[in-house]
Amino acid sequence: MAVPTYATPLEKLWHYTFRLICWLIFFFLVAPIIIMMPLSFNAQPYFTFTLEMLEFNPQGYSMRWYQELFASESWMRSIRNSFVIGIAATLLATVLGTLAALGLSRAKLPGKGLIMMILISPMVVPLIIAGAGMFFFLSSVNLANTFLGVVLAHTALGTPFVVITVTATLVGFDHSLTRAAANLGASPTRTFFKITMPLILPGVVSGGLFAFITSFDEIVVVLFVAGVEQRTIPREMWSGIREDLSPTILAVATLLVLLSIMLLTTVELLRRRSERIRGMSPG
Amino acid sequence: MAPKDHNDAFVAFDRVQKTYDGEQLVVKDLNLDIGKGEFLTMLGPSGSGKTTCLMMLAGFETATFGDILLDGKPINNIPPHKRGIGMVFQNYALFPHMTVAENLSFPLEVRDISRAEREKKIARALDMVQMGEFGNRRPAQLSGGQMQRVALARALVFEPDLVLMDEPLGALDKNLRERMQLEIKHIHETLGVTVVYVTHDQSEALTMSNRIAVFDDGRIQQLATPDELYEKPENAFVAAFIGENNTLRGKVESVDGAYCTLQLADGSRVQALAVNIEGEGAESTLSLRPERVYLDVSSETHDNIFEGEVRELIYLGDHIRVRMNVCGNDEFVLKMPNDSHARRLSVGERVQVGWVKEDCRALDPS
Description:
Chain A has helices spanning 9-39, 51-54, 64-71, 73-104, 112-124, 127-140, 147-171, 176-183, 188-216, 220-225, 233-242, 248-280. Chain A is an all-alpha fold. Chain A starts with 8 loop residues before the first helix and ends with a helix. By secondary structure, chain B is α+β, with helices and mostly antiparallel strands. Chain B has helices spanning 50-58, 100-110, 115-128, 144-156, 174-191, 202-208, 226-231, 236-241, and strands spanning 11-19, 25-34, 39-43, 65-70, 73-74, 86-88, 162-166, 194-199, 211-216, 219-224, 246-256, 259-264, 269-274, 283-288, 294-295, 304-315, 319-326, 329-337, 350-355, 360-363.
């Protein structure tokens, strides 16, 4: 965006100052994440740049911490746990959230606002309170320190994302399509899988990805309800920082950042696809 | 065509009532028999209950009271997907993620029809609406008129005996609408399928229908063939809703068999056909079509002769609309054909107008 030719000197000054401010904010947001990446290749067990690194001397870099990561039993277990818990919680949250959103999209449902509020509450309530609550609840039904307990807790945290994204997709959904399908002879089940599902799929998938990310980097609830056996990556990083300060966690962090970028790219691509389909639907 | 009696009806509404909120009746005591192969139009202003009736027939709404019968069997408790009724929706409701051919294939797949048979039926249905070339397009790549044709083909491809149409031409421009009206009419004549059509456009209803049911306030005001509806409206609402209409209000002075004499507010007396009046002394609305009012006629041939003053002339090519003041009504309109010996009128001129009493219908006061 260029400065218009009629701009006064003051306006020009503001224009460049504004750009500078934007870049500073951007830097503030991204720098902590970027800085981690080269440090994870540090040859020394330090969290700072060594002289060799600053001179771009190959001697200063190594894959040491990545090797250590993949050799460590506790890290590998936590990675496995994170994926198992994340995927299970995502599947549950996606199914529950999609069904809830479909129900909430019906015009005649009484108490719609209240139900929506309750479903969204895990997103709004401070995690520490949700965590404490879940701990007491899961303990009383003997599910604390079990995989099922962690999965259920993360399902509750992930469901709101699915509800929100699917609800947003359903706003543009033409309900006469389901009527048309019924009129043409399709049972409600068939209508759901052949008509409704393909059209709301982008919303379902992006909601599912958000649910997965939520579970994947969640620590507060895990601290409350998970035992040693259920330690996830964030939980392992947390003890890593407290107990043995090793740049391995920088390697983990770098891998997590890459994974997040991949997931967010997927979400964005899906959003564009959904917009395209919606632009296509008549009316 | 029109059923001989209630038992002969293909579709029958039997004392049907519908309320959404439990207080206000949207449809009040509807009785309607539709014959096999008939093209019946439900015509009425918005909120008159016509679309609700169509939705009850399709199964998307349930009747609060009364029975709806299809081929003699009550269908109140049959879900929409088991009724086997075709429907063309107002916004077409084509599935955006499927091609035209896939849209048409959908009702056939549901019915477990073999692939070869499906392709034959799809090709035939698309050819019928002149869309044979468009099977691989998606709905978004079609124009409004083309989507309309595909929606029509999809409603007919599984060969239902009954097809419902909910203002299907509402979104099209005038020329295309008129062409589609004729096309739908011809398809109906060729296939012999029963059609129930909902519209608020009276010319559409007159063009296509075998019979028209005029809806207002949740009731059928009149059920008749297009010509009967236009020429013999039974109440003031129908007279005003269908076509152009001159309205004169007055009191019934005397009734003489099929005819009556009314005294209007300005004192003039008009002879009229007694259609829907309560008797001597009752208020009544006179309905008179503009094309049945003549200039410069004698009292020997025309029962009612009055003098009027020309207020406005509107040139419409084939005819001239003359607005004048007759019997105290400033909105009195007559249509003067623009033929070679037409008289040239000018605004302010006083002329004699006349009409016969058969063309002037005394209706309810409304």
